[in-house]
């Protein structure tokens, strides 16, 4: 349940998502997260650092740890489901399937 509490906090999933492709500096990460306030980003990064999902590199960029990459992989089915769900909501712009079962 601790993982659900951690990922249920606003922005934590987004931060993990933004770090999925490699290290990102604080300012760039803030911009990728819709310019959230610096204090909130700092707080969320501290939570993710304490949970050992994120590490700070010597150049001050943030990156996913091995645990963070494993967490991201565990969340991939949710990402696929959400993409299918979004497509069903966009159905008025085309014929989207109503099946949101992940593949």
Q: How would you describe the overall organization of this protein?
A:
This protein is mainly alpha-helical. The chain has helices at 2-8, 12-18, 26-32, 38-50, 66-89, and strands at 54-56, 62-64. A hairpin with a 5-residue loop joins strand 1 and strand 2 (62-64).
Characteristic terms for this protein:
mainly alpha, two-stranded antiparallel ribbon, 103 residues
What's a quick, concise take on this entry?
By secondary structure, the chain is mainly α. Helices cover 56% and strands 6% of the residues. The protein starts with a helix and ends in a 14-residue tail after the last helix.
Strand order of the largest sheet: 1-2
Count of beta strands: 2
In this structure, how is the largest beta sheet organized?
A: 2 strands, antiparallel
How would you describe the shape?
globular
Q: What does the average pLDDT come to?
A: 88
User: Helical stretch count?
Assistant: 5
Estimated share of beta-strand residues:
5-15%
What structural class should be given to the helix and strand makeup?
A: mainly alpha
Radius of gyration (Å): 16 Å
Distance between the amino and carboxyl termini? 26 Å
| Percent in helix | 55-70%
Q: Provide the low-confidence segments as ranges.
A: none
Order of helices and strands: HHHHEEH
What is the topology?
Elements: H1 2-8, H2 12-18, H3 26-32, H4 38-50, E1 54-56, E2 62-64, H5 66-89
Antiparallel strand pairs: 1-2
